[in-house]
Specification:
The protein is built from 1 helix and 11 strands, in the order βββαββββββββ. It is mostly beta strands and 134 residues long. It has one domain: glutathione-dependent formaldehyde- activating enzyme (gfa) (Alpha-Beta Complex), CATH 3.90.1590. It has a 7-stranded mixed β-sheet. Strands 5-2-1-10 form a 4-stranded antiparallel β-sheet, with no helix packed on it. The longest helix has 7 residues. The protein is globular, with a radius of gyration of 15 Å. 28% of the residues are buried. Bound molecules: zinc ion (ZN) (2 copies).
Length: 134
Amino acid sequence: MTINGECFCGGVSYSISGPLRDARSCHCSRCRKAFSSQASAYALVNPEAFEWTSGEELLTLYQSQPGFGFQFCSICGSTLCGTYDDAVHGVTLGCINGDPEVEIGRHIFVGSKAKWEVMPDGVLQYEGAVPSDT
Ligand SMILES: [Zn+2]
Ligand SMILES: [Zn+2]
């Protein structure tokens, strides 16, 4: 399978040759800022399966912690991916075109969600991290 994604203005695009995994949404205060939204929504990707297909020169990297960063389009501001040691390890679900064939499996750090966010019924929620991740 091939998954394609692009930013809002279309200047930056990418291709992934393989499945995404572990799609999730994080409701912590850091993700709210990074995604300008109530939560993040992203999935993990094998770095070797990921390739920029246009506009790589438009990307800006913001390192939020040593080694960990976000790459976003310097023209339109879409956050496209998360990086670790300069390799793409996750992609934002909002920038994917079409069906990525994954669904958000769990909502994490719901214990620090924004006051104004109303969680939908029936989703798997964790107050903090997923226990198996820590
Ligand atoms: Zn853009
Ligand atoms: Zn978070």
